[in-house]
Amino acid sequence: MKKILIILLLFLSFGLTSCGPKEDEPVDCEITPTHEDCEGIVDEENCLESEIDVNGVCIDQEVYELQQTYKNTATLSNYQITFMVYSDVRSYTFISQFDDDKSSLEFNGNTEYYSKEEGKYYNYYMELGEYIKEEIDALPSTNMDLLVFLSPEKLLKVDEKLQLLEQYYDEAQMLFNDQFPGCTVDSVVIEQMNDNYYTLIKVTLTTDVKTYRFEFMLSDFDTINITLPDTE
Q: What is the mean pLDDT of residues 177-201?
């Protein structure tokens, strides 16, 4: 009797999923959850309390939210990043703003601008009280490589912070090797983030002679409006 019930249930299940609802009947998403009209409809009974339904798939809510935060951060095109460098005896602060094909870099009271115009790259810099526009081979490197690098599968949550797993330290080192040849990465931590973006990243690395600490503070998302200086 038990076998007959199992076979009957399998048969009914097959029949329901194969035939589906008639075109002139409303779709029952409990019976045909894969139907196109059911996409995005959450069946909370099928997911755990800590999960959410994403197009019919139960995903841990915390994991999903982190994935979305990463995607938003890795595709930023309008934002400000305050970059602070601390060495054993000195500290420096740089402020970069990005507005699609325009950017600026402020350091020690001076601001330079960069742009991409009709496929060419330009640097605007101050000389004798006036800005000079000069064509350059490429735009300077930004911190976007680091933001793209810090994908969720490389991170471990510890005390509400996200730490880079040690097996990725060598890859992280390559991001700093041009400026700090032979450096060793000691730690990479996402200290803060809001609902949409990473907002504070801290990196510690050492060279043969010094230890450096970096802080990358992201802010002003989608509010930057850069006006290039007049050079005429």
A: 92
